[in-house]
């Protein structure tokens, strides 16, 4: 099972795509068992293709072809999502509330390893930890109030990024588990 995470669809009236139409387009390029979660571009699917870069390219191309939008896409194997969720270093602090966790997925590991410019902008009580292609965020004032947004992270690390909240990641894991049992 794979998870595709799209950046910037159905946000503030931009890049509007109906999930039913998106599922149909993705099935048209050979993806199977395509399911979506909410309207912001979270897709679980099965594929005989195992190259995630090729899957990303095909998904971006069909969205451009069928909907006219260039939409960044990140594809993860379900095993990778399990690892990302389970290795969250911020879970170790028992005072942290799950509802304030977010994960920023990076298109590639950044060449810049020093997070000081990013950490300098965080609000008090916020946390950010970079691990490979993932930044774990803790935003106790809400993601809408943090300065650690996708655009900010992209500008500092020079890679594209997309963020999901903890509830969404848990829902995607549940979808993957359900489909794996079939």
Write out key terms for the chains shown.
182 residues, alpha+beta, 4-stranded antiparallel sheet, 6 helices, 8 strands
Give the SSE layout:
Layout: E1 2-6, H1 19-28, E2 32-37, E3 42-46, H2 52-67, E4 73-77, H3 78-86, E5 101-106, H4 116-119, E6 127-131, E7 134-138, H5 150-157, E8 161-165, H6 166-180
Antiparallel strand pairs: 1-3, 1-4, 2-3, 5-7, 5-8, 6-7
Helix pairs in contact: 3-6
What can you tell me about this protein's structure?
The chain has helices at 19-28, 52-67, 78-86, 116-119, 150-157, 166-180, and strands spanning 2-6, 32-37, 42-46, 73-77, 101-106, 127-131, 134-138, 161-165. The mean pLDDT is 90. The strands form two sheets. A four-stranded antiparallel sheet has the order 2-3-1-4, sandwiched between helices. Strands 6-7-5-8 form a four-stranded antiparallel sheet. The protein is α+β, with helices and mostly antiparallel strands. The N and C termini lie close together (11 Å). The protein is built from six helices and eight strands. β2 and β3 form a beta hairpin.
Shape: globular
Biggest sheet descriptor: 4 strands, antiparallel
Overall pLDDT confidence:
90
- Kindly state the percentage of residues in helix: 25-40%
Q: How many helices in DSSP terms?
A: 6
- Widest sheet: strand order? 2-3-1-4
Counting helices, strands and paired strands, the structural category is: alpha+beta
Unreliable runs: none
Total strand count, please? 8
Q: How far apart are the termini?
A: 11 Å
Strand content: 15-25%
**Order of SSEs, N→C?**
EHEEHEHEHEEHEH
Computed CA radius of gyration, to the nearest angstrom:
16 Å
């Amino acid at each position: 099972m794979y998870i595709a995470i799209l950046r910037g669809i159905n946000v503030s009236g931009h890049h509007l795509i109906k999930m039913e139409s998106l599922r149909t387009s993705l099935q048209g390029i050979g993806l199977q068992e395509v399911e979506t979660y909410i309207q912001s571009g979270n897709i679980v699917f099965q594929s005989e293709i195992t190259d995630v870069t090729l899957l990303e390219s095909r998904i971006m191309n069909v969205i451009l072809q069928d909907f006219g939008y260039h939409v960044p896409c990140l594809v993860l194997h379900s095993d990778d999502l399990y690892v990302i969720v389970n290795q969250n270093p911020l879970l170790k602090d028992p005072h942290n509330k799950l509802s304030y966790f977010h994960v920023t997925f990076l298109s590639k590991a950044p060449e810049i390893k020093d997070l000081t410019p990013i950490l300098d902008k965080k609000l008090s009580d916020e946390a950010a930890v970079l691990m490979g292609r993932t930044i774990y965020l803790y935003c106790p004032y809400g993601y809408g109030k943090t300065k650690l947004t996708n655009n900010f992270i992209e500008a500092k690390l020079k890679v594209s990024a997309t963020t999901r909240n903890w509830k969404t990641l848990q829902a995607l894991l549940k979808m993957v588990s359900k489909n794996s049992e079939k």
